[in-house]
Every structure is written in structure tokens, then in C-alpha cells.
Specification:
Blueprint (H helix, E strand, L loop, with lengths): L1 H20 L15 E5 L1 H10 L8 E4 L5 H9 L5 E5 L1 H8 L4 E9 L8 E5 L17 E4 L4 H12 L8 E4 L6 H7 L5 E5 L1 H10 L5 E3 L8 E6 H4 L2 H23 L1 H10 L6 H11 L2 E2 L5 H18 L17 H4 L15
Parallel strand pairs: 1-2, 1-3, 6-7
Antiparallel strand pairs: 3-10, 4-10, 4-11, 5-8, 5-9
Helix pairs in contact: 2-9, 2-10, 10-11
């Protein structure tokens, strides 16, 4: 009897430990329980799903939040107000350094990122003819936003040019709205990474005064879905996220295949842009594709983590810490062979 009691107590202790013993890559439940709700901050995917009609197929309720970008999404995660969001490469790294456990669950990139960069370096009118290559960044005042994609791009550009932060003056400025174009035009900085319609508008507005933009020739396109670890630990939420990732992939495919509808439905109707600006952004983006393997993604993340670690003094960590590999094949697996959103070539 004593032996049986001891065995029973031992089993009870083992069961109590099971949650911490289950590997992070355990299978995702196949069934989404009735009543499951996902709170999603991804206006781009929301619009694509609505325009395409795919939103009507999703078998659970979604509460959409008009939230995007790292700072907003991280704040919502901390407040437990959001289950998943869409951001660029840096937020999950920064979140890890600020004690917010998160994982990335889906990735997409541009098919030809060098020909279709998200950012270009704007050059102040006074130096329009003097800064034409990355090597010319030496000695310049460069707008820098630590913790955001633009800040990481600045560090990558310096690395590519054989320079360090000591060879330039990094001017910390938030990369929101038109802050960078205004800083360039006013001479507050010499160089700044600008994106979206700011590229075109900056040259149109200040080109006559000497303002220019230059290409950096680097990959700046990674984007992903990410979620707090506590959400991914919830079986019902994880199952729903697996379904959502499939529709996210289909939405990406739909945008590729319907550029005119996308320009009208998102850029013009939702963002309030002109037809000319919408057409420019369609051309600037090119085709978006989804990798079936995250091995290259992990390697790129590792390099970025090391670069940011050296610049900030924070401790580097393994990129696998922020990848939930359970989701690795889900997005690409939702697409048929020949899909416009499947990677057809590898671009470094």
C-alpha cells in the first residue's frame, strides 16, 4: 500500500510538471473550439480578406483592431488586448529584450527585394550631389530610430559600406509620418531612410532644391505575423491562429493577383491616397511571396540580432527563440502549386 501511494504521488508530481516539459514544437490542435475569438491587428490583411470575400469563409469570429507597427502592437500585447499582429523584422527582437515573450508565426517577403525596396535613403538638398553611394555616408548625420526597421537598416547600410556608428552621427528621431522628410528638408539631418509615398513626395517637393534619394542595395523587406507566447500556449487560440495563417497566405496571393482592386480598395478607399500614389505603391511593392522554409529567415534574424546587440549593448540570443516552428509550413501549404505567392527563386 505504501508503495502504491508513493507511486501515485510520484505520478501526480509528474503530471504537475507536464506543462513545462511539453516541447515548444508540440502539435497544434486541429479543431478550433466553438466560441473562439481572435483579436487581430493587421489592417492590410483585414482589407484583403474583405475585398476578396475570403473573410466570409473563416470559421470563427475575428475582432479587428486598427493597430499596426511594433510599438503599437507591443503595447497591445502587454495589455492583453491583442492576439496577433503584423510587423517588420525588428519588433520581436526588441520585445524579447524588454521581457515580452513573443513568437513569429508567418513570414512573407518581396520576390525581388533589391528591385523593390521598402526604403530608400533620402539625401538633404544641400548634399544631393555629394552623397551617391553608401560609402558617402561617412561623416554624415543620419536619422536613426532604434528598435524599428529603419534603424536596423541604417546599421546594415553602415556595415555594407565598411563603416561603423563611430564613422557617422546617429540622430535619434521617430520614424513616423513625415518626420524624416521634414528633418531632411530642414537640414536637421543629412541622410534618412524614407519609405512608401514619402520617397516620391520628397523628391517631387524638394528635388528642385537638390534633394535626391539613393538605393541601399540591401534586403529590407521581411514581414511577419507575431503573437505573445501566452496566446500561443492557449490550445484554442493556437488552433485558430493556424487557420488564420492559411487565410493570411491566401490574402497575400489575392493582393498579388488583383493589383487594380487592391489599389482602389486599400490605398485609395481605406488610406485616402490618390490614384497616382496608389499606382506608385503597387509598382514599388512588386510581388510578395511566402517561404516554405524558415532556415534563411532564421539566419537573417541571427545576423540582425548580432548587429543590434553590438550597437545597443544588449545580449544576443538565438533567433530560434522567436520562431514558432510549428507554423513553418502552414502559410505556404495553404497555396497551390504555381501560386503567385510561392517563392520561385531565392534572392539574397
Amino acid at each position: 500500500m505504501k508503495h502504491d501511494n508513493a507511486l501515485k504521488l510520484g505520478l501526480m508530481a509528474l503530471v504537475a510538471l507536464l506543462p513545462s516539459m511539453v516541447p515548444a514544437q508540440e502539435n497544434i490542435p486541429a479543431i478550433v473550439p466553438e466560441g473562439t475569438v481572435l483579436r487581430i491587428g493587421d489592417p492590410v490583411t483585414q482589407t484583403a480578406l474583405e475585398l476578396s470575400g475570403l473573410a466570409d469563409e473563416i470559421p470563427f469570429r475575428i475582432e479587428w483592431a486598427n493597430i499596426s507597427g511594433g510599438p503599437q502592437t507591443s503595447e497591445a500585447f502587454r495589455a492583453r488586448a491583442l492576439d496577433v499582429g503584423s510587423v517588420a523584422e525588428i519588433p520581436s527582437i526588441h520585445a524579447t529584450w524588454t521581457n515580452l515573450p513573443v513568437r513569429n508565426i508567418a513570414y512573407k517577403e518581396r520576390e525581388d527585394p533589391i528591385a523593390h525596396p521598402i526604403y530608400r535613403f533620402g539625401i538633404t538638398p544641400e548634399l544631393g550631389g555629394e552623397v551617391t553611394t553608401l560609402a558617402d555616408l561617412k561623416g554624415r548625420r543620419i536619422a536613426y530610430s532604434p528598435g524599428q526597421a529603419q534603424g536596423a537598416l541604417v546599421l546594415r547600410a553602415l556595415e555594407a559600406a565598411g563603416l561603423t556608428a563611430n564613422d557617422v552621427t546617429l540622430v535619434e528621431l521617430p520614424s513616423t509620418g513625415d518626420v524624416y522628410p521634414v528633418a531632411l528638408a530642414s537640414g536637421q539631418v543629412d541622410v534618412a531612410p524614407i519609405g512608401s509615398t514619402n520617397i516620391r513626395r520628397y523628391v517631387n517637393q524638394y528635388g528642385a532644391d537638390g534633394a535626391t534619394v539613393i538605393d541601399h542595395g540591401l534586403r529590407d523587406d521581411p514581414g511577419h505575423l507575431w503573437s505573445p507566447q501566452e496566446v500561443l500556449d492557449d490550445p484554442a487560440k493556437a488552433a485558430a491562429l493556424a487557420v488564420f495563417v492559411q487565410y493570411w497566405a491566401k490574402a497575400t496571393e489575392w493582393v498579388n493577383d488583383h493589383p487594380e482592386e487592391w489599389a482602389q480598395g486599400y490605398y485609395i478607399a481605406r488610406e485616402g491616397l490618390s490614384q497616382e500614389d496608389a499606382d506608385y505603391l503597387i509598382e514599388q511593392t512588386g510581388r510578395q511571396v511566402i517561404p516554405a522554409s524558415w532556415d534563411e529567415v532564421s539566419a537573417r534574424h541571427s545576423h540582425t540580432i548580432a548587429l543590434l546587440s553590438a550597437a545597443t549593448g544588449r545580449e544576443a540570443f538565438d533567433a530560434e527563440q522567436i520562431l514558432d516552428r510549428r507554423f513553418e509550413k502552414i502559410a505556404s501549404g495553404a497555396l497551390a502549386d504555381g501560386s503567385s505567392a510561392l517563392i520561385r527563386k531565392t534572392t539574397q
